[in-house]
Amino acid sequence: MKYKTILITGGAGFIGSNLSLKLTEKGYEVTVLDNLSPQIHSEYSPLYESIKDKVNFIKGTVLSYDDWKKALDGVDVVVHLAAETGTGQSMYEIEKYTDVNIKGTSIFLDILANEKHSVKKMIIASSRAIYGEGKYDCPKCGIVYPSERKDEDMAKGDFAVKCPYCGMDAKPQATDETSKIHPSSIYGITKQVQEQMFLVMGKSLGIPAVAFRYQNVYGAGQSLSNPYTGILSIFSTRIQNGNDINIFEDGLESRDFVYVDDVVEATVLGIEKDEANYEVFNVGSGKAIDVNTVASTLVKTYASNSKITISGNYRLGDIRYNYADLTKIKAKLGFEPKVNFEEGIRRFTSWVEKQEVVEDKYEKSIEEMKEKGLYK
Fold first, then answer.
1. Are 212 and 123 in contact (CB under 8 A)?
2. pLDDT of residue 142
3. What CA–CA distance (Å, rounded) separates 364 from 225?
């Protein structure tokens, strides 16, 4: 084993707790730094409970220099997952998102640059959000990278992505790591900055850095009480409360859903393989699943009477399509996603049905977006 001790910031969260358990199972000594944010963790947090006796847990914040110093003591590898993660919420809580995601990262890198430490490798959780709309093919102009869609088009029910040059409807392509970076949300911008900071400072300090651009991660253990991120958990909580589901746009918008076990596997490969050093990788399933399919699959699986409405409502800044090209991570790290959508949904819904029904805060989140003029 090349490394012995690993720090995971946000290690009591959804991805972090699963990664913590996998790494301890493999024999690593794991330290977790987490603030147990109420938006993710309820009064009783099964994610925290699953790791508390298996890791060195530090309740603290990435905004604290002292917490970082304490957490970094004797650490070989840092996996930086701690972040604010709601794409829509980021558009009206700008200071919070930039503070936690960018300033929190800067404190860590400042310590590496100016203090004695034992860090030999660092991993940053980036996001598919940095691509914005991603890669498209225009029948006239070829490969293009469209900007965000226009409010006036969507108000008329035209949700198609347009070529930025000729205005024709463009067809989505698998987005690879060389695609244009142009995030359409504050969250996406902060993830882009985090990624660049890690890679630039890693090279400057001679500490191998790896960035993983996670797609839409889901699975057992996902927060069911957070209405700001995770369409599968949002819909499931609506259904469990007997509420109907409102699908935005025409329901044909799609995402690349990747099961948390596959994300953990990719991250472990990034820790253990030198081939990952100073590289960025997409982590996804490589397949696009539309929202209509997500909603109908959940309603059927839960045997629910919840009504599905395709409303034509939309959120400014939302992307239409995005799915990952996995060529690079397959070639360099030997990664292959193992859990397909059907199996992932089976595992996820089976877990949900064993949980207590939590309060549905979805309507509150929509009201917040309406007040800010971001929901139409």
1. yes
2. 98
3. 12
Q: Would you list the domain boundaries of the chain? A: 5-135+174-371, 136-173
**Confidence (pLDDT) at 88:** 87
Q: Give the per-residue pLDDT at 228.
A: 79
The residue ranges of DSSP E strands in 105-243, in sequence order, are 121-127, 136-138, 142-144, 171-172, 209-214, 216-218
pLDDT of 64 reads 98
Q: For residue 49, what is the enclosing H or E element?
A: helix 46-51
- Reference 86, options 373, 368, 376, 371; nearest CA is 368
Contacts of 123 (CB under 8 A, 6+ apart): 77, 78, 79, 80, 209, 210, 211, 212, 267, 270, 271
CATH number 2.40.30.170 is the correct assignment for the domain at 5-135+174-371? no
Query: What is the pLDDT averaged over residues 21-38?
Result: 95
What pTM value is reported for the model? 0.95
